[in-house]
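Q: Sequence in, structure out?
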Amino acid sequence: MSEAVVDGRVVVVTGAGNGIGRAHALAFAAQGAKVVVNDLGGGRDGAGASAGPAQAVVDEILAAGGEAVANTDDIASWAGAGRLVRQAVDTYGGLDVLVNNAGILRDRMIVSMTERDWDSVIAVHLKGSFATLHHAAAHWRERAKAGRSNDARVINTTSPSGVFGNPGQSNYGSAKAGIASLTVIAAAELARYGVTVNAIAPTALTRLTDDIEMMREAATSQDLTPEAISPLVVWLGSAASREVTGRVFGVVGNRVTVLEGWVGGPTASAESRWTQDELTSAVPNLVAKAAPNADALGNRKGA
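A: Exactly. Output:
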């Protein structure tokens, strides 16, 4: 792939003040994109707000000769997501790529999780991804109705916790699973407007994961820096990815995996409505024939 594959493209990256989002913003700018750096500037649990993180990334891009502006809207707010998209259009004349990356963590076991823990995480991850996607899609639809073509991209961020599961993250995992489904549905709906929609499930050592012992141990043997995730995201935002849509990619260091979603497995049918005795006989046999669920790293036992 040649460099500057996104030269001149207008890119919005949410949660771009730190970690993976920051790496995305810098990578897009380095290859010629005009970047709107969105970050509320809160803590890893979503508390607080500061214009500092977004502006620091913008300053870094400008110092390197790139183009960028800061945005501190809360993308979990419908109005905030709308303002973010309008800023991109008003500042640079359009929007070509939306990278939904913003997120927070409030990990708890189910019995200890509060309503606020649940609502806050769902709002930022799932509602925030949908809200920005909605406003961006409305922009692209208006362009299409006006006879103007789009070559647009959406890259959402799910997680291994969402597609494989991880104890202690029922709120985060549920939101991320929703984002994976949203990606598949949005890809089908927006194809008519010249928009592709894909997602990544990244594994990287960031401020959200640096207290997880397994992550720190894994980082000693492979590149788990946020910067390792960004090359695929930049490619997915380029013209070269035009034929790829509705897919979720696992990204760990220098390894890229196409994650395969739910599929039909072993099946049994009854001649009439199932009885309890028949189900007691049939269901365990079906489960025994089915492939086991993957572990938190996406691996199946015995595979």
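The first strand starts at residue 10 and ends at 13.
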